[in-house]
Specification:
172 residues, alpha+beta, 6-stranded antiparallel beta sheet, 6 helices, 25% strand
Length: 172
């Protein structure tokens, strides 16, 4: 029952925001709290350039996270690439023998575990949700699926590129 309340609360936060950036900042906060994580980073994904760009974040001190928008080439992070191209969720924990690039990224930014879910708008990944934890934590299959469910709810926001294209067509 509490999971249902969380979905309704997160979806409501998305609908009440003034714009997509504000919605994602609220959504990042809700996800961080819901999953008892240290932080949540939401990024955009450009399929043309294969780049991931930081968009919104929420961090619970003492954890720290640079919220300056940075670009990451997708080819440098195989697990992240699989998440946005295959539309699957994944998680990494330092020391689990998984993707060395993800491990190095986590260590560089001071975290020990993450959960990744694609942010799907329409039929394509337009972004990435990444829950981060300073604890050595293994996200369960249920947590990964639940995060994916919530990420899919974020897809109610209009795709920024489609919205701009529609506006251009209307304005001529």
């Amino acid at each position: 029952f509490s999971d249902l309340i969380a979905v309704i609360k997160a979806t409501g936060a998305l609908r009440s925001a003034g714009d997509a950036s504000e919605a994602m900042a609220i959504f990042a906060r809700e996800l961080t709290l819901l999953f008892d994580a240290s932080a949540c980073l939401i990024s955009t994904f450009d399929p043309k350039t294969q780049m991931v760009t930081d968009w919104a974040a929420h961090v619970i001190p003492p954890a720290k996270l640079s919220i300056a928008a940075e670009d990451y080439p997708l080819d440098d992070y195989p697990t992240t690439k699989r998440v946005v191209t295959e539309l699957v969720e994944a998680s990494t924990t330092i020391g689990d023998g998984g993707d060395p690039a993800e491990h190095a990224f986590l260590e560089d930014i001071g975290f020990r575990a993450n959960l990744l879910a694609p942010l799907v708008m329409g039929t394509h990944a337009r972004g990435l949700i990444e829950l981060l934890d300073t604890r050595r934590r293994v996200f369960t299959a249920e947590e990964r699926q639940f995060c994916r469910l919530l990420a899919d709810q974020a897809g109610i926001l209009p795709d920024p590129d489609l919205a701009a294209a529609r506006m251009s067509a209307i304005l001529g």
